[in-house]
Amino acid sequence: MPTIFTRIVQGEIPCYRIAETEDFLAFLDVRPQAKGHTLCIPKRETDYIFDLDDDQLARLMVFAKRVARAVEQEVPCQRIGIAVIGLEVPHAHVHLIPLNSMQDMAFGKTPLTFPPAEMQALADAMAARW
Fold first, then answer.
1. HSE (CB half, 13 Å, CA atoms) of 62?
2. Structural domain count of the chain
3. Against a cut of 0.85, is the pTM above it?
4. What burial class does residue 108 get, using C-beta atoms within 10 Å of its C-beta: 0-12 exposed, 13-18 middle, 19+ buried?
5. Which of 9, 16, 38, 105 could join 123 in a cystine, given CB atoms 3.0 to 4.6 angstroms apart?
6. What phi and psi values does residue 82 have, to the nearest 5 degrees?
């Protein structure tokens, strides 16, 4: 059965899209740790990030770096934190989280919520920076 991320790639589930290439997709996390929390994924479903071949892993990180630059231009923050947890969805992905404090990247806390219109406006603004 396809993962939720594969279903997003295939257009079965909508997302707040920020950036896309032939191989990768970036979109806002709908359960964000901080405003602007973004996920970068390979379009090809691979469960574990370290199962990606070296070239694809390197290209995913370069893609994530470019997306992070768009995020930090739209969300005031000290830095963009990066995390790879890999337990919540069996599809390799990188979390990009705007940070102003260490608590902004505390995955045990209750996720933030933002109105859909605000999420879409933020995604559109970041996409324009891409």
1. 8
2. 1
3. yes
4. exposed
5. 16
6. -125, 135
Tokens of 45: 């479903």
Say how many Å lie between the first and final Cα of the chain, rounded.
32
Enter the tokens of residue 82. Answer: 């990066």
CA 27 to CA 119: how far, in whole Å?
A: 10
pLDDT in tens, 8-46: 999 999 999 999 999 999 999 999 999 999 999 999 999
Q: What's the CATH code of the domain at 105? A: 3.30.428.10
Lookup result for tokens 């995604």: 123
Token digits of residue 62: 């370069």
Q: Which domain holds residue 120?
A: 4-129
Structure tokens at 41: 């994924």
d(CA 105, CA 107): 6
- Polymer length of the chain: 130
Residue 108: its pLDDT value, please? 87
Are β-strands 79-83 and 38-42 bridged in parallel, bridged antiparallel, or unpaired? unpaired
